[in-house]
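Could you help me review a protein record that somebody else here produced? This is what I was given.
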Amino acid sequence: MWMEIGACLRLGPRYRRSPMSKYFEELDFQQTPLGELSLRRKRVAMLGDLEVFEVKLGDAFLMTSMFHDVEDAVADLGLAELGATPSDVVVGGLGLGYTAVAALAHKEVRSLVVIDFLKPVIGWHQRGLVPLGPRLTSDARCRLMHGDFFELATAPAGFDAGRHFHAVLLDIDHSPRNLLHARHAAFYSREGLGALASQLHPGGVFAMWSDDPPDEEFLGLLKSVFATVRAEVVSFPNPILDRNSASTVYVARKADAQ
């Protein structure tokens, strides 16, 4: 979906008039281990000059502020499984901050660790370059961590010096098959998911975004590790394509303590 949306969002001639035009501004550009990363702000004339923030990695559109229904749903669907339990939560992938902000909207969340591999992304929030930055950096429950989620998910010390968490919410790769980097592949295995599950409290939840339809093979992997598993299709209006788009949220829960 994001590649399809990206093709529609590419800037036409009027947006290329100057790097600081009314319609387009590149707020940051950095070389990263994953490629060229850029944060852009633009106004979409066909949507009434709507202000839109978007992130590109190389030639790929990673995210846009125009749609964040699925990012919200990762937090809402995952944390709903916990009910009123006071919760310590990890978010894998900061991006524009929508999943993290949606998690903090749950009053039961008492601590939130947001992990991002790309240090400039954390800097955008700390410098107030993106709209949700001040909300995240001013919330005492929230800590932004520079690190490799996939490495920490399988490390002996885990995400945070051996702490256990009630929920892990993941929004990094496009899907279990469409990865930002080949080294992430080991996570999407029984061993990788099992290592993640070992960092959860009994009854803890893993929720994950995917841009692809539900994948039966991946659901099978989740079922080999977690007690309950489901895939929720989340659809949302897409004014650029003039139709609904859809993504998948996987929600997996660990068995309760015996």
